[in-house]
Design brief:
The complex is a heterotrimer of chains A (140), B (172) and C (649). By secondary structure, chain A is mainly α. Chain A is built from 5 helices and no strands. In chain A, helix 2 packs across helix 3. Chain A is elongated, with a radius of gyration of 31 Å. Chain A starts with a helix and ends in a 10-residue tail after the last helix. In chain B, the strands form 2 sheets. Chain B has a 5-stranded mixed beta sheet, covered by helices on one side. Chain B has a two-stranded antiparallel sheet with strand order 1-2. Helices cover 35% and strands 18% of the residues of chain B. Chain B is an alpha/beta fold and 172 residues long. In chain C, helix 11 runs antiparallel to helix 12 and helix 17 packs antiparallel against helix 18. Chain C is α+β, with helices and mostly antiparallel strands and 649 residues long. In chain C, strands 2, 3, 4, 5, 6 and 7 form a 6-stranded antiparallel beta sheet that branches. Classes of the chains: A mainly alpha (140), B alpha/beta (172), C alpha+beta (649). Chains in contact: A-B, A-C, B-C. At the A-B interface, helix 3 and helix 4 of A face loops of B.
Chain lengths: 140, 172, 649
């Protein structure tokens, strides 16, 4: 046996690069991990200044990501996961504010601003149309 | 009329910004207020083999104080907690993020205000109670409902403002 | 010694600012030429002394004088010299000193470049700037003195945050502040106009180049911040709707509306009260931004350490400066005046539409940023308003705006024929549609938002080309066209490029998160990434694990990338330094994760299609601004020159 060990070792050393593989994904379940990232990107890290749960490196954020992963493995839906976190940390954990009376102004505001802007534009031009002043020459 | 609109709007904005200076954007209210205390069954630090659940404390209002041996801010409230304990307030400790040996050593060294301390080994209890850091203190009433939460070291002022009125309402 | 000299210089600057902010006003009121003439020398003197103070602080940083508290807190002896210099503005105190330097600088620039202003106007403009300087110099001296000493000085400093040790950080704050502070000039012109009573096309012509240059700097500053975040945060994000970012976006949106409103005011003397309001509002938003970042009122990754005393002072300053100017606005409201007519389809009408949309977008960003504060102050608890909200509401407002950007420059003033206009637009439309289908398909599929985004970007570019074609058809030599025209075209082209970049990188970015051992490979977007291991690599003030990744592109070219994981000597803080390879069609981005034992590492590779178009687009926009501001009519002597002949007039 000993006579073969050196040639075997040599062949093994030459063969090793052939063992270099297509790198396996970091996550055990890439599809689950994608879902996790997508969901936690819209959730707030409650101990950070202003980071999402997906990107934060805080220890509690990591714990919560593990928690979410566990819940997803149990088969919970995205909504159930969000409600789970909401029950413990409140609405603060949502980066997408819920649509409820206290946030009506927030969600309807942009449309309101657009409406006001549009109205102002309309009124301003109509006033110009009706102006009896002599029309201005572009140069003077 | 519309000439005064910008100034008026600005005055309103200024009012809000002024109010904002006195608020802390990081202080988050707990969604547990008014709800039953989340259940757990955790080993007791001081007496191995024994476990404790919030149900065991029913019948008398009590405080849950979340702390950790590495937490320096927790030391600041330690003296006050000792006073409370001496005055008869029931305080149970939750050792956050599992450093049981350190925790035991520390309590032996500086004294314990806790009737007992539980060891949150897997972090589940911390998450269920919505703990975001240490120290945090919860007030649970005699019926097992969470009534108040304070983040940061507990002191006489906060206690008088937030906890004492609730404790008076539902007596020990 | 030097820090004390710096401190003293600031005090002298404050005194000069007081002089600059009072005497010229009195002179303008009474017509006293001597008092008015005080303004320019006072402004120059103030700049000299502030520059001295800034130099003193920079010197302290460069020479590692750790007895200065600011240096001890923010610098480190092993820090490379360039970062020791930029640490000067890496803290609250230092950045406020930078702000004050910029303010003094803009004021001094006015004395050189605005010689043709009537004496009373110049006196008032410089006077307003003097008062603003008093406010800020007072703030620095009272609450944020960068020259405080530490006795005894520590042997070494606490080091600069590793994230700030980057070329982006060198340039981002100065550019940003040039922008924020630059709008104070427009603000000063607005108040001078209200005080002096002259608010007409000539006023607009004086104000416009200053506004455009400030806008240009702000554009560069925001783009640099985004570029820096992209490279430094390790995973290629470039905008997070963080309150600090919003604080810079708001004055930018207002400033964009302002330069377009000034176009109408300069050309036709219309929308005076609106333009004036915008001029005040833009600077107000700069000040608001300063307040939000430094007061602790909002939660942000970018926030400086919070101090209620500072917040109170800035709020007071904000209240005085803006409240005072809005009061003046209300009292001297420039209403009335001739109302010129223009049609529903006309340049004026579309510019007004531009303003309506920009202000709606601005109001939306402000609403989202301040809403948590509003609710909390009213006792309604805490909500978080983050990217999901902003992304949902901002883009529907911006889309029609982008559509207008393709049409507007081609629309004649006063009255345009809708049919003729539509005729001119059919080629841009067809081209946009074609590319909007082809490009997304080439990247992987027809996502509706991607199609829309690319359509709008190419639409704008098409409009720019049609504009040039029309000028050629009229016999103009392109290079002889006024730089105002070129500025508009280049800036809009930049916008189109930016939109295409944002659309493609948002919709088609791809990543792989893998465990790599030596020799392992991963494929992404037609590229093969081979991991060749990592080795220790010391840096000037850190130690790094430096990995080698060989990349083979689809066309066969080979690249070598070196992502690093650094540990900084002073604090032990860790940081990921991603390796980025940029090309026109997209970036390859490799980031080193955790060491997994042995020679294996977790590695993340990204493909970011067309992300470079973001920064290129912003650069083009800035260039356009520069071109527009350098138009000859702003440098012409005396007589009112005609506005340049613009396409479609």
């Amino acid at each position: 046996m000993r006579r073969w060990s050196r040639p075997i070792a040599l062949v093994a050393a030459l063969a090793l690069p052939a063992l270099a593989v297509e790198a396996p994904p970091n996550a055990d379940e890439p599809a689950l991990e994608q879902r996790l990232l997508a969901l936690t990107a819209d959730l707030r890290c409650v101990v950070c200044q202003n980071e999402s749960l997906a990107e934060s490196r805080a220890p509690l954020a990591k714990d919560l990501r593990d928690e979410v992963r566990g819940l997803m493995r149990q088969g919970r839906t995205d909504d159930e996961v969000v409600n789970y976190l909401k029950a413990r940390y409140g609405d603060f954990v949502l980066y997408r504010p819920p649509f409820k009376p206290v946030t009506y102004l927030l969600w309807l505001g942009p449309a309101l601003f657009l409406g006001i802007g549009g109205l102002a534009w309309f009124v301003a031009i109509r006033r110009r149309q009706r102006a009896l002043a002599t029309s201005d020459l572009p140069t003077h | 009329m519309k000439r005064w609109l910008p100034l008026a709007a600005f005055a309103v904005l200024l009012g809000f910004l002024f109010a904002g200076l006195w608020l802390d954007p990081r202080e988050v209210p707990s969604p547990l207020i008014g709800r039953p205390a989340p259940a757990f069954t955790l080993p007791v630090l001081e007496r191995p083999g024994l476990t404790f659940s919030p149900a065991d404390a029913r019948g008398k209002a009590w405080l849950l104080n979340v702390w950790a041996p590495w937490c320096r801010t927790c030391r600041r409230e330690h003296a006050f907690l000792m006073e409370l304990a001496a005055a008869g307030v029931a305080i149970y400790g939750l050792n956050w993020q599992d450093q049981a040996r350190e925790a035991r050593r520390l309590l032996a060294e500086i004294g314990s205000p806790y009737a007992l301390t539980v060891d949150d080994q897997d972090g589940r209890a911390g998450i269920d109670w919505g703990v975001t850091g240490v120290p945090e203190t919860f007030l649970v009433d005699a019926d097992g409902l969470v009534r108040a939460k304070h983040s940061g070291p507990l002191n006489a002022r906060v206690y008088a403002r937030m906890f004492a009125p609730l404790l008076e309402g539902k007596g020990p | 010694m030097i820090p004390e000299l710096g401190h003293f210089a600031l005090i002298i600057a404050l005194m000069l600012a007081v002089v600059q902010g009072t005497l010229p006003f009195m002179g303008a009121r009474s017509g006293d030429a001597q008092l008015m003439a005080v303004a320019r020398p006072a402004a120059v003197g103030q700049f000299a002394f502030v520059a001295l103070a800034f130099g003193a602080l920079a010197y302290s940083f460069l020479t590692n004088d750790f007895s200065v508290k600011n240096v001890a807190r923010n610098s480190f002896s092993q820090l490379p010299a360039v970062y020791r210099l930029t640490a000067t503005w890496g803290s609250h105190e230092g950045s406020m000193l930078l702000w004050v330097l910029m303010l003094a600088g803009w004021t001094a620039a006015l004395t050189t470049f605005a010689r043709r202003l009537p004496e009373a106007t110049a006196a008032r403009v410089l006077g307003v700037l003097g008062l603003v300087s008093v406010g800020f110099l007072g703030f620095v001296l009272a609450t944020s003195n960068p020259f405080e000493r530490l006795y005894p000085g520590p042997p070494d400093g606490a080091d600069m945050n590793p994230l700030l040790q980057d070329v982006g950080m060198v340039l981002h704050p100065p550019m940003l502040y040039m922008g924020y502070v630059g709008f104070s000039v427009t603000f000063a012109f607005a108040l001078a106009g209200l005080l002096g009573g002259r608010l007409d096309a000539a006023w607009a012509r004086w104000t416009r180049p200053w506004t455009t240059v400030a806008w240009m700097f702000l554009t560069i500053g925001i783009a640099l911040g985004s570029w820096w975040a992209y490279r430094e945060l390790g995973w290629g994000g470039w905008w997070f709707w963080d309150p600090t970012e919003n604080a810079s976006l708001m004055p930018w949106l207002a400033g964009t509306a302002l330069i377009h409103a000034l176009a109408v005011m300069e050309r036709r003397g219309q929308f005076v009260s609106w333009t004036l309001f915008l001029a005040i509002a833009t600077f107000a938003l700069s000040l608001l931004g300063t307040f939000l970042i430094r007061s602790g009122v909002l939660s942000s990754v970018h926030a400086f350490a919070n101090d209620p005393a500072r917040g109170l002072y800035i709020l007071g300053l904000l209240g005085l400066v803006i409240g005072g100017s809005l009061l003046l606005y209300a009292l001297r409201f420039p209403g009335g005046g001739r109302v010129a007519t223009f049609g529903w389809v006309s340049r004026e009408s579309l510019l007004l539409g531009n303003n309506a949309l920009l202000v709606a977008a601005l109001a939306t960003v402000m609403l989202g940023t301040l809403y948590p504060l509003f609710l909390d102050a009213l006792g309604f608890g805490k909500v978080s308003v983050g990217p999901p909200y902003f992304n949902a509401v901002f883009f529907p407002l911006v889309a029609p705006l982008l559509f207008l950007a393709g049409v507007g420059p081609l629309t004649p003033w006063q009255q345009a024929g809708a049919r003729a206009l539509a005729g001119r637009l059919k080629w841009p439309f067809a081209a946009a549609l074609g590319v909007a289908i082809a490009l997304p398909l080439a990247h992987g599929g027809l996502q509706p938002l991607a199609v829309l985004g690319v359509f709008l970007g190419v639409w704008i570019l098409g409009g720019v080309l049609v504009g040039f074609a029309a000028a050629r058809r009229r016999g103009a030599r392109l290079l002889a066209l006024p730089s105002g025209f070129w500025g508009m075209q280049v800036a809009h082209a930049g916008l189109g490029v930016l939109v295409i970049g944002i659309t493609l990188v948002s919709s088609y970015a791809a990543e792989r998160d893998v465990r790599m051992n030596v020799g392992d490979h991963v494929d992404l977007a037609g590229h093969r990434f081979v991991f060749r291991g990592a080795s220790g690599h010391p840096g000037p003030n850190y130690v790094a694990d430096r990995a080698t990744v060989e990349v083979t592109a689809p066309d066969g070219t080979l690249l070598t990338l070196h992502p690093e994981k650094r540990k900084y000597n002073a604090t032990g803080a860790g940081m990921t330094e991603a390796a980025v390879h940029s090309r026109l069609s997209g970036d390859l981005y490799v980031s080193l994760g955790e060491h997994l034992g042995g020679r294996a590492w977790s590695v993340r590779v990204y493909h970011k299609p067309f992300v470079g178009w973001l920064w290129a687009g912003a650069a083009l926009m800035a260039l356009g601004g520069l071109l527009a501001a350098s138009d000859r009519r702003y440098r012409a002597p005396r007589s009112e020159r005609l506005a340049p002949a613009e396409v479609g007039a």
